[in-house]
């Protein structure tokens, strides 16, 4: 693992990137699943897609969102 953030795992099945679950996003960002759901309700956090009853995230979107959160200290 890298310091402060889990390594990006872009698993592929054929031509398609496997989408992340809420648990995958929480693990990557090292936050709780509850926070991911709260962000979804408030319109914060990375964009997720509902597929039936399942919520999925494109790993590239999660990384892009994370990078956009950086501010000068």
UniProtKB/TrEMBL annotation:
It comes from Kribbella solani. Keywords: DNA-binding. This is Putative DNA-binding transcriptional regulator AlpA. GO terms for molecular function: DNA binding. InterPro entries: DNA-bd_dom_put_sf, HTH_17, WH-like_DNA-bd_sf. It comes from the Bacteria. Residues 21-69 form the Helix-turn-helix domain. It holds the Pfam family HTH_17. The lineage of its organism: Bacteria, Bacillati, Actinomycetota, Actinomycetes, Propionibacteriales. Gene3D superfamilies: Winged helix-like DNA-binding domain superfamily/Winged helix DNA-binding domain.
């Amino acid at each position: 693992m890298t310091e402060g953030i889990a390594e990006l795992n872009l698993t592929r099945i054929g031509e398609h990137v496997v989408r992340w679950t809420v648990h995958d996003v929480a693990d990557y960002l090292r936050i709780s699943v509850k926070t991911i759901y709260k962000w979804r309700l408030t319109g914060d956090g990375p964009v997720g897609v509902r597929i039936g009853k399942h919520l999925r995230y494109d790993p590239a979107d999660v990384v892009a969102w994370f990078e956009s959160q950086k501010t000068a200290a």
